[in-house]
Amino acid sequence: MTRAISLHDVSKSYTRGVRVVDRLSLDIPPGEFLVLLGPSGCGKSTVLRMIAGLEEIDEGELLLDGAYANELPPSGRDMAMVFQNFALYPNMTSRDNIGFPLRIESPGADPRPQVDATARMLGIQDLLDRLPAQLSGGERQRVAMGRAIARHPSAFLMDEPLSNLDAKLRNHLRAEIFRLTRDLGVTTVYVTHDQSEAMSLGDRVAVLRGGVLQQVGTPREVYALPVNVFVAAFIGTPRINLLRGLVRAPMGGAMTVSLGRQYLRLPEPLSLDHQLLRVQQGREVIVGLRSEAVRIGKPSSARPGEVPLHGLVEHVEFQGHEVLVHFNTGSQSAVVPDLEAPRPAARPARRRRREAGTVLDRLRERAGALRGGPAGAPRGGPVGVLDRPGQGEAPAAAEPRLPGDLIVRTTPDIGLRHGMQVPLLVDLAHLFVFDQHGERICPAPARLPDLEE
Ligand SMILES: Nc1ncnc2c1ncn2[C@@H]1O[C@H](COP(=O)(O)OP(=O)(O)OP(=O)(O)O)[C@@H](O)[C@H]1O
Ligand SMILES: [Mg+2]
Fold this sequence. Notes:
Helices cover about 20% and strands about 30% of the residues. It has 10 helices and 21 strands. It has helices at about 45-50, 95-105, 110-120, 135-150, 165-185, 195-200, 220-225, 230-235, 270-275, 360-370, and strands at about 5-15, 20-30, 35, 60-65, 65-70, 80, 155-160, 185-190, 205-210, 210-215, 240-250, 255-260, 260-265, 285-290, 295, 305-320, 325-330, 405-410, 420-425, 430-435, 440. The relative contact order is 0.13. Adenosine-5'-triphosphate binds near residues 43, 46, 193 and 343. Keywords: ATP-binding, Nucleotide-binding, Transport. This is ABC transporter ATP-binding protein.
């Protein structure tokens, strides 16, 4: 049996007035693999623990197969949880560890056949007679998975089960989890802060920030049509380039997005998405360019829809099969400060979005505070953006600083060196624009995903 899990407007506070999960609604159909993705402290584990029944739900409803389940004890939910540090019983062999929940469930029955079948599925038949201390980390995690799987639960709840393993093993077990959960067809909720793990595992990915659901969609949807700059920046490697821009739409003239010293001239006739940018005339926006939107090339080799830009090579990052070239284009990077920041301090329940001021207001406020200006906690809100250092503003402490404002992916044989001026081409079919609140305005929000392009 597999089950549907629904959360309706679920909230949770540990401290009065501080919501760590804020009105979360999610419908997970039977058999789906849903990934909860977000930075540290955004409430992922809390959501999972509320589904498991290990944490009380303050407000809202949890439905299991459509039935109200807020008060159901964990044992009545028929779910299996796998944690980051899954504690195996140290004095029990793998066989006994895997068989333990089976013996509890049906004391008279012989757990051997089920333990053996599970061990075969996980390829750990040879490890069944060993104690946990005689296993490697990856093997231990596999035994832990076996313990969760053996009793055929109706849902798996996994909380960063791979984060303590080395990269090779992580990839290997990731593939195994993918295969296993698909074979078993059991609803799975998987928590991670690793976007590549989320993208490779999930049927759908739910992106959380500060306890608030930002977007839920297939990996392709959240990548191709992120609802806001936070989702855009959280998903995809290398990270999307985010630049501060200004829309200029003079009467009768060409429409451009100014990027400081250079500008992008929107090709005529304007696409529908670009036409809709006209209302932003004179406003500051955030321009998002994923690596596939920019290539090295002379203006004469531009394809339809591509416009020129140029950049000064600041750093060449060799990756083996490709290089990442960090360019300085003379624009200002817009960064999302809490993407990889340490666990944020508890803050008051989220204010209403528009009351929180614009991103740029908060930017100024925060910069003022960092310079010793008016004191006060940074205000909550949809997205935060800070200037680059050297632009008169203080940097976000936790944001790693990379040279250049635009990263372009290219082949390793390109022979670029620091200090070279290089012509670039920007494909405006891949242009993202976000407004001052960080909401996506290009492609237009109402546009349906056209993922076959
Ligand atoms: N028992 C608790 N008492 C008080 N605050 C808590 C408790 N458990 C979690 N929190 C707070 O709730 C917020 C969400 O925590 P949670 O563990 O759900 O985050 P997370 O997204 O799983 O983070 P991580 O990726 O670091 O595991 C954090 O700010 C955390 O400090
Ligand atoms: Mg957690």
